[in-house]
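Researcher: Please translate sequence to structure tokens.
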Amino acid sequence: MSLRLTIFATLMSATAAFAQVAAPGGPGAPAAPGARPLPPAPMPYGAAAPLPPPAPVAADSTATGTVVQFLLNPNGDADGLLLNDGTQVAFPPHVGDAVGQSVKPGDTVQVSGWRAPGVPVLRMQTLSANGRSITDQPPQPGAVPRPRAADSGLSQLSASGRIERLLYNDRGDVHGVVLSDRTIVRFPPHLAAAMPTELKTGASLKVQGWGARTAQGTSLEATAVAGSNGELRPLETGPVPRRPL
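Model: Translation complete:
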């Protein structure tokens, strides 16, 4: 009797093993014709998502050239230099006073700092000119804020002319232009990206906005730009939200 039970148990075990291997979807079973592979298992809740490829990292860089003009923000403060080879040297406004006292258009400068690949903007760390060296250092804690160049406040200004050069920020986004009369017109990057036809070298531009005229030049933040019919149209002040589908 026990021999019969042993043989029966052995046969049942072999049958179950065979069914597990041969049954569709069982471990090791070949996929049925036309079957689709299973999607990957969902990530557990709270698990970190795969990281995107790393963005290009800004690298140390240097430039030597002749100063064409100061680059000004709409307050009239110098926050950069335009060199004759097209390099745009950028620095914070609190450094602009020292640069303005040591440099003038036509001078040769040597600049060291960093820039992102393919971007014509060199973020200044040290600038040397006329036997002097200027280093970008943060203001001392508790220091009195520097007075702005436009002490009387911003004025409503208009500008028109041919675009001579596009201005970029550190990331390579267009955020302004230099007109043929050296007037600097600034735009928020998201608005500049929405005007590829108007903002290109050689195109004519007519704008209205708020800015300042100083001894170093004229700069304004555009609030309206002329369309193809020549009429000024207001610019949006912020990114346009997406409409619901």
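Researcher: Any highlights?
Model: DSSP finds three helices and twelve strands in the chain.
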